[in-house]
Specification:
37% helix; 260 residues; 23% strand; Dihydrodipicolinate Reductase, domain 2; 5-stranded mixed β-sheet; alpha/beta; single chain; 7-stranded parallel β-sheet
Length: 260
């Protein structure tokens, strides 16, 4: 089995965590790390090839899995480089537009690609369970979501919050773009019966908290997932990388495929 892993954005919080965990895993080989050209100093500690250009690394490694937690634009470049070099990729990047996801799906026809806005097994279990809870509760419960992350996170709401809201909207037969409410201020009138509120808090060093509120007559249910460390997401990405080794291209794989 091909066990080579390449990590992009290795000086980032997630990239560094993933690279260290790959090195600690006896079943895997850290075959290369990638960082911006002006940030390559100090990468010698990983004892593997490093470069500012992913294609340069891929030309040396042969078949491998690239793990990428960067930005939508950079991740699309990663996917294109993988397609050109017969490599696979696991991406945990958030903030993709619908058009960018379409591009990713097209590239997945050429090479095996895996994408999840949240690599946590717990979050992905909730994505399967929450629609069933919603159906049991019925239409009299209002839906609200809260997303809390550290002050350095660039996108809002988080990709996880959006995915949770999309799944719940679909369970109600709604389109989140039509019924999602992402901020409230002033004299806005009564809450619409079909609104799905998604609110964002940013501050401190919170790794990632997501709470779904089912607000009903005389009671409420709160379902919260808290990530205690980035290793939660890094371990999920490594699990996905092992899973996608040997998979065929043709679709954009997700955590649903891995967990089914």
């Amino acid at each position: 089995m091909d066990n080579k892993i390449v990590v992009t954005g290795v000086k980032g919080r997630m990239g560094g965590t993933i690279a260290c965990l790959v090195q600690e895993d006896p079943a895997l080989e850290l075959a290369g790390v990638v960082e911006k050209a002006d940030r390559l100093h100090g990468l010698e500690k990983y004892n593997c090839p490093s470069a500012g250009d992913l294609s340069e690394i891929l030309s040396r490694t042969g078949r491998c899995v690239v793990i990428d937690f960067t930005s939508p634009e950079a991740s699309l470049d990663v996917a294109a480089a993988c397609a050109a070099n017969k490599a696979s990729a696991v991406m945990g990047t958030t903030g993709f537009s619908s058009g960018q996801l379409e591009q990713l799906e097209k590239l997945a026809v050429e090479t095996p690609l895996f994408w999840a806005p949240n690599m946590s097994v717990g979050i992905n279990a909730l994505l399967k369970i929450l629609p069933d809870l919603l159906k049991l509760l019925g239409d009299k419960y209002d839906l609200e979501l809260m997303d809390i992350h550290h002050k350095f996170k660039k996108d809002a709401p988080s990709g996880t919050a959006l995915k949770l809201a999309q799944v719940l909207a679909a369970a109600k037969g709604l389109n989140l773009e039509d019924y999602g409410v992402f901020s409230r201020k002033g004299m806005i009138g009564e809450r619409g019966a079909r609104e799905i509120g998604v609110q964002t808090l940013r501050g401190g060093d919170v790794t990632g908290d997501h709470t779904v509120y089912f607000l009903g007559p005389g009671e409420r249910i709160e379902v919260t997932h808290r990530a205690h460390s980035r290793e939660t997401f890094a371990q999920g990405a490594i699990r996905a990388a092992k899973w996608i080794m040997g998979k065929k291209s043709g679709k954009l794989y997700t955590m649903t495929d891995l967990l089914t």
